[in-house]
Amino acid sequence: MTAPTSNTVPNTTQPSEAVRIAIAEAKELPILDVGPYLAGVPGALEQLGADVRLIQENLGFFAIVNHGIPQALIDESFKQTARLFDIPMEEKLKHRVGYHHQGYLPPKSSILQSKVIQEKIALNTKKDTNAAWLFMRNRTADDPKVRGNVRHRGLNQWPESLPEFKKALYEYQTSMEKLGQRLLPIYARALNLRGDYFDSMFKAPEYYQRCAYYHPEENMEEGQYALAPHSDGSFLTLLPMTPVPGLEVMTPAKEWLKVRYVKDALIVNTGQVLNRLSNDHFIATPHRVVNPPMKRYALTFFFYPDDDANVGPIPECMAPGEKAKYDSRSFYDFFVPYLDDLYHYNDPNFMKEVEPAGVATAG
């Protein structure tokens, strides 16, 4: 780290023995109990900061318990998501994803690939078998970004036939947003920053909700995935665990760790935003979903800073003489090319057909 400033507060707490063992063995995700921290127990924040620092410098994935999100809400959201993918295809296609990357994404309609993963693993050339329904922060028609047709900031496409889904998912999203904000001090202390360091970047945070359906595919091609290897673009990602297997995480040894189900737990990982802010000290770990043995649903919540937040490297996160590995830019200026680099649609004319005239396409 650089010389101390008003933003730096060294965290001298050592990682817990359980986290050290989990990282050394790399056989299961570390499990952190955030209940004491959320309850304001003295010392809990510093301990979590030390644990997360070790995790983020090595594996990049962990699970949290006692997180405060009611399990009944998570269960209802899973139930409504299953119903979402059961509605007739005709209705789903009326809401097909387009210029704003909001709406229904049919199975085998895109190839997930990015330069980051190509450099770390290989170039993916196969269509993902999963289906998804994609939501950004919920906005109203009079929102300035909606009126201005700001890309990825349009109106969400809620299915008319499932009003219960919208009610459950919106409550789920607002609950996850609040939890994401409550976790910010942990990451600040993990980076030896003041606990409130990230507050100014998350005054009106953005998020991206991916409801996914992974069906057992009988005719998988060689090198094909339910969801191909990728790293998230988030500051952090929150994912309720499901007993149906499929998620795999790349370990430091570049082996694939099969994630074990932990009842009532949320998976937490960080993406390329925090990777940039930490100047590569906190990793954005590649992960994938393989063909599941039965129907599998996911409620992935990607938590982002404000659109105008600077996501260039934080000076205090660089050692003396260390050069910045990323440029300074707003989160929004990072997010648009990130999605364009990641999602490549089968039909090259699809985005052109739905976008406003004169605006660049995706993929």
UniProtKB/TrEMBL annotation:
Residue stretches making up the Fe2OG dioxygenase domain: 197-305
Keyword rRNA processing belongs to the record: no
Record-linked PROSITE patterns: FE2OG_OXY
Alphabetical keyword list: Iron, Metal-binding, Oxidoreductase
Domain of life: Bacteria
One example GO MF annotation: metal ion binding
Family assignment from sequence similarity: Belongs to the iron/ascorbate-dependent oxidoreductase family.
Protein name (database record): Isopenicillin N synthase family oxygenase
